[in-house]
Fold:
Amino acid sequence: MLQALTLSGSVRFDSQNALLARAMGKKLALVGAEGNNIDLVDYELALFNADLERSGDQPENAIKLAHLFAKADIIFIASPEYNGSISPLLKNTIDWISRQKVAPFHRAIFGIGAASPGKMGGVSGLKHLRDILTSVGGLVAPTSLGIGNSSNILDKTGLLMEDNTNKRADNLVTQLISISRNP
Ligand SMILES: Cc1cc2nc3c(=O)[nH]c(=O)nc-3n(C[C@H](O)[C@H](O)[C@H](O)COP(=O)(O)O)c2cc1C
Structure:
């Protein structure tokens, strides 16, 4: 069975992106992937500074996250847009994971999405996220899922309340499953 990992680059209470990550986790589970939706609040990491690596020891949470990434077939990241880019939390998390030895970015196919109250649906930030994941060796699905006006679309139980958004999300799920089965 395919292993799917879903996460949000925001740990804010009421985060729209946490709802998006949960919604995509549910959709992936419906097509037979085994889902693991994690909350980065449970994997706290210091702001990366190479001096922190000097002792040779890596933080336990970076190691745990790297192992979760390394064993997943599909990783969906819901990425809040901050000033046209990704959140500092998500960048810091990726930077720490990239320092681990278990090839964390080489197995999974990545799906990326963003939920934003703005009209553009966080798509500028998604371009940056695509570049960053590509630069660490990740394969990112061609479709990305920007959801504007998101508070009217994302439901607290993890459903997408609009037909067109549901269709786009389902297309991304189909792409993720198909690429992970035929890499
Ligand atoms: C520092 C900061 C910068 C932001 N910049 C953008 C932006 O460039 N584009 C956008 O659509 N929304 C922007 N927003 C609004 C966020 O997209 C919005 O707060 C969103 O709900 C954050 O995601 P979350 O609900 O998952 O925490 C910004 C918010 C913050 C705090």
